[in-house]
Every structure is written in C-alpha cells, then in structure tokens.
Amino acid sequence: MDEPIRAQTTSEAIDPVLARLDPDRDRPTDVMATDALSLSFASTTVLRDVTMRARQGTITALIGPTGSGKSTFLRTLNRMNDKVPGFTHSGDVTLYGESIWGPRQDLLTIRRRVGMLFQRPNPFPMSIRDNVVAGVRAHGIARGEQLDVVAEMRLREVGLWDAVKDRLKESPYRLSGGQQQLLCLARALAVGPEVLLLDEPTSALDPLSTDAVERLLRTMTPALTLIVVTHNLGQARRLSDSTMFFFDGRLVEHEATETLFANPREADTGRYVNGLMG
Amino acid sequence: MAQVNQTYASTRRRRAAAVSFRVGTLLALALVVGPALWLVLGVVVRAVPHWRWNVLTTLSQGTSGGLANAVVGTLVLMAGVAVIAGTIGVLTGIHLAELATSSRSGALARGAIDILAGFPSIVLGYVGYIALCVGLRWGFSLLAALLILSLMVVPYIAKSTESALRQVPTNYREGAEALGMSSGYALRRVVLRSALPGIVTGLLIALSVAGGETAPLLYTAGATNNLPTFSLLHQPVAYLTYYVWTDYNQPSDAAHYVSYDAALILVVLVLAMLAIARIIVARTQRHSETSR
Ligand SMILES: Nc1ncnc2c1ncn2[C@@H]1O[C@H](COP(=O)(O)OP(=O)(O)O)[C@@H](O)[C@H]1O
Ligand SMILES: [Mg+2]
User: Fold this and answer.
1) In whole angstroms, what is the distance from residue B281 CA to residue B164 CA?
2) Atom nearest to A70 CA in ligand 1
3) Could you tell me the residue ranges of all domains in chain A?
4) Which ligand is nearest to the CA of A67?
5) Per CATH, which fold does A28-273 belong to?
C-alpha cells in the first residue's frame, strides 16, 4: 500500500490556521503497524517478516488457513504473547508510531488502548452489570454511581440494554451465546480502546447473532480501528476495508479487500479465496 | 450375514459393558453412602435417647457432668486453625497455582507439603510436645495445639486451593489480561472469585478434620474441666474428641453417655460445616457458568 497519510494533509486544506493548532497534527494515521515482525516460541518460528499497517478507522481482515499464525499475530499486537514460555521476536510493532515494547510504554495501558474480543464469549463469573464495568473499575476510570451510567451506556451501544436492563444483577451465563459476545464487546468498549482486535468473534455464534455482531462492528468505525481474524470469507468481504492473507507464518498479501478477492496478486491467495485451500 | 452377526455381537458387548459400568458406579455409591449413614445413625441412636440440653451449658467433672468446656474448646481450636492454617494454606495454594508453576520454590513447597500430608498425626503431636510444650516450655497450651493442628491441615488447604485455582478457565484469565488488569488485580477480582467455592469447601473440610482430630491434641492441648482462657500459653484446652475417647474407655454408663454426647455434638458440628460449605458454594456460584 502507499505512503502513510498524515492527519495534516486533510485538515490543512480546510483551515490552515486551525490545523496548526491541532495537537494531533503530527499523529500518523497508521494506528497499528508492524515492521518486519518475526516471532518464535522456543525453536518454532510462527511468524516470519510480517510488515503491515492498519489505518485509523478502518477494518482489517486477517484470513488464512488454520495454523498460519493469525491468532499469534493478533495476540502479539496487545502483547498477550509476551509471557508465553519461549517467546522471542525481532522487528517491531508500533501503536501510533511508538513501539509497544518501548521503555515508556506501560503494558496495562497498551492493553487498555488495544482491546480484544475472543472466539468464545468469556464473560466473568459476576453479574452482567459488573461484567460491563470490570475493566473500567480496574483502570479506575469511573467509580460508584458512575459505573451504572457506564454500564447502561455501553449496553445501549451494543444493543443489549433492552434485553438485560431488568436483570443487570443476574448471571451473564443465562444469556444466549450471541448476547454473551455482545456483553464482552460492551466490556471491551467500556475502557475506551483505540484499536480492537477480534479473533474469529462470530465463529461460535449462529447466523442471526453473527449478523448482529457484524452490523455493530461496522458502526464502530471510524472511531475505532478494527483488526478481525475470520475464517468466514464472506464476512471478510462484507466487513473489511483491507484484507491480509496469511500462509505458513508469512503475510502473503495485504490489499484493499475488493482487490484481494477479485484480483489476487499471489497464486496462494487466489487458491485460498476461491476455496481451493483449507 | 457374517458381517451383520459381528455387529450384533459387538453391540451386545457394548451394551453389557455399559450396564456393568452403571452397576459398578451404583455399588460404589452404596459403599460410600451406606457407612456414612450407618456412622451418623449409630451416633444418633446411642446419644439421643438420654440427650439433655444442659450438656452444652455445664462444665465437665471428669467422667460425668457436661461438655461446655469441650464444646467451646473445640470451637476455639477450629476458629484458630481457620485463621492460621487458612491464611497459610490459601496463600501457599495461590503461590503454587499462580506464581511458582515451574520454578524451584514451587518444587520445594510441593515436596514439603507432601511430606507434611503424609506425616502421621500422632508423630506430629509428639514432635509438637517435645519442641513446643517441653522445649519452649509452653506446657499444654492453646498455641501449641493450634500450631500442630494447623501444620496438620495446611497441606490439605494448600492443595485444595491450588486445584481450585487450576480449574479456573483460561478464558477468564485471558479476558482479564486483555482488559489490562494487572495479574494481581485479575487474581483478586476474577480468578479467586471463580475459585472461591473450591477454596472454601477445602477449608471447611480441613476444619472438620481438625475438629475431629485426637492424637496431636493429646500431646499438645492436654485436658481440663475448665473453659478456655484468653492465654495462649501454659493453659490446657478441653476438646470434644478427648471425651469421646477417654469416657468410652470408662466402666460407668454415665461416662459412656458423655462419650456418646461428645460424639453427637462433633457429628452435628461436622455436618453444620458441610452445610455451610454448600450454602457458600451455592451463593457464590450464582454467577458461575456451571449453575445456569
Ligand atoms: N504457545 C505456542 N507454542 C508453540 N507453538 C505455538 C504456540 N502458539 C501457537 N503455536 C503454533 O503457531 C502456529 C500458528 O498458530 P495460530 O496463530 O493459532 O494459527 P491460526 O490462528 O492462524 O490458526 C501453529 O502451528 C501453532 O501450533
Ligand atoms: Mg486462530
């Protein structure tokens, strides 16, 4: 893909004076990027030389056969692999241009800024309301009665409020799988992330819930930048702006979604998107 | 045709295996439930006919009188063990499950726990007597009894805590980690909450074991007809199992009655602990995955 676009290029044209005053004027619009990232667990190399970037407010889909390293890649972006025994890496991952492993970075802050949603819904063993505000409490973002406000706001945001408003104190495990996943999404959104990583977020859900989650994800841009692993090629096409095809730990191709599906550059990509490869 | 016969035979064999498995599990169940009922009933039948409530309020006079001193003594011992062994055991369990998964300190702690768990309680009592009562000149005392009883049940509490923590789904830990919770915060707010029923159950069972123990107490708590005092040293402590044991070996009916009464009170105490464990589990499991 082409050169990084800077925020100033657009706002400068509209109002050069205001643009000068904008504190974000030098902020790169590449929210998350990797530079020649290679990664191993002990002697197993899982990722080789992955360079990519995710633009502000876009949805990036990660596709590729099972075992190609999609989950590992995703979990590296919020440093969930750091503590895996034998983890080593070379190259870098940056968040707004700064290395996530940089000396001034705080691990917990990185995780707050880069949220994650998992394949299987994983509400905590506490009430629905406490689930939504679990992260908010941990980071001391709100307290006391503010928590109720946060809970309502976030539950409304994911369209769950009407379904659960009368049972906020009850167990989340009585909700349907789709509702549980929405609850986890509300919990992730509540801490105000800038990037959301999603690892096959709908593969454990029925088609209706999948549809609900997908629609919701689309409303979350451009405020958020999403990176979604999916096995569902239809989902990748419906949802994403650009698509990355992983194969055997390598990023084979990263293109605008339409281009990648209609006109793949690499033979492997073509075989995969045409269903000729697992 | 041969093919068909073969499938038929293997189906029959599978069905026979399933049936004998069921019978086996039912038999095992009966072997556990039977003796448990028989034990409880045996104690109840012997104690209830002559039961008088003032046993709970009057002090013992050797082989006659009430058991108030022993009831209070046993409760004080159990409470002390809950504090001492509970704290040490739960912390050790947390260390084993969360912090020392592969390290040397984990191996060391695990070895120590296995040794302690395998130690005969009477030997533990004797060692306590030599080291604490005689060596440190504590005499028969509450503190000596508490330390030895605690040492006895700490392995149990540590192991049940460890296994409860290990059973917490990775899902929860990952979810907490991804939200940016520190590992300590996640442990306190998410992981322990989910492991709590297992930890509490282990603790209460350990307490009933402690309450029902005799051998180490004979060496460390001594015997007395008085209520426990507030001093930790130099004052013997009464406890129920002492009366179960000594009075049963007396020739008089009155002494036997005291023995049965003490046994009944102990059984009720243990059952109460188990009931409390259940209630706590049910309460804390309100939001758990298993009790949808
Ligand atoms: N902790 C680990 N230790 C060793 N190998 C691992 C570990 N985690 C993942 N792998 C390996 O990395 C490869 C990629 O796995 P993964 O990222 O889960 O792929 P995907 O999500 O694309 O299916 C697999 O071959 C897997 O066995
Ligand atoms: Mg995966």
Assistant:
1) 12
2) 22
3) 28-273
4) 1
5) Rossmann fold (3.40.50)
pLDDT at A10: 57
A191 touches chain B (CB under 8 A): yes
- Interface confidence, given as ipTM, is 0.86
Q: Which of B150, B145, B143, B147 is nearest to B230 (CA)?
A: B143
For residue B186, give how far its alpha carbon lies from the nearest alpha carbon of chain A (Å): 9
User: What is the rounded CA–CA span in Å between residue B286 and residue B283?
Assistant: 6
Contact predicate B81/B144, CB 8 Å = no
User: pLDDT per residue over B15-70, tens digit each?
Assistant: 888 899 999 999 999 998 888 898 889 888 888 888 889 888 888 887 788 888 88
Taking CA–CA distances from B174, the nearest residue in chain A reads A80
- Using CA coordinates, name the residue in chain B closest to A110: B180
Indicate the pTM of the whole model.
0.81
Three-class SS string for B155-189?
Answer: HHHHHHHHHHHHCCCHHHHHHHHHCCCCHHHHHHH
